[in-house]
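Sample pair:
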Amino acid sequence: VDNGRLNVNFEMPPGTKIEKTAEVAQEIEKIFVGMPEMKTYVTTIGETGTFTSDIKDRGGQGPEMGRVAVELKSARERTSLGLRSQGEIVQVIKAHVRTIPGVTLDVREMREGPPQEFPIAVHVYGENLDDMHQVAQKIERHLTEIPGTDRKSVV
């Protein structure tokens, strides 16, 4: 559903100073400056929040976390002006952020109604954390090959 609202959640490696996270946020914001589809955006660093309906792993806090909440012009207005859809803009964001070293990205298209979890959840159990992480990354790569599974999180 193209309702013109999305959250760009991003995370830097643990131990990243908030000043570096702020620099990355400014780099992400460059995507939106001059974008004809844009209505407004608000950036928060230091947390991803837990009070909105796009909860990712119940939100997060720390100097390595950030979010850009985006509101686009309405789908009707964008269509009438021949502008891009919300889905196309999400792809532009992902392509741009891929060029920023060290950033883990999760773009959430906001939906009406109550919060929804991921439709697929895989839990990896074991005693060796390194082995579990390797297995989780393998599963993530496999899921990426399945159409429609573009939102994933390995924790």
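DSSP finds four helices and four strands in the chain.
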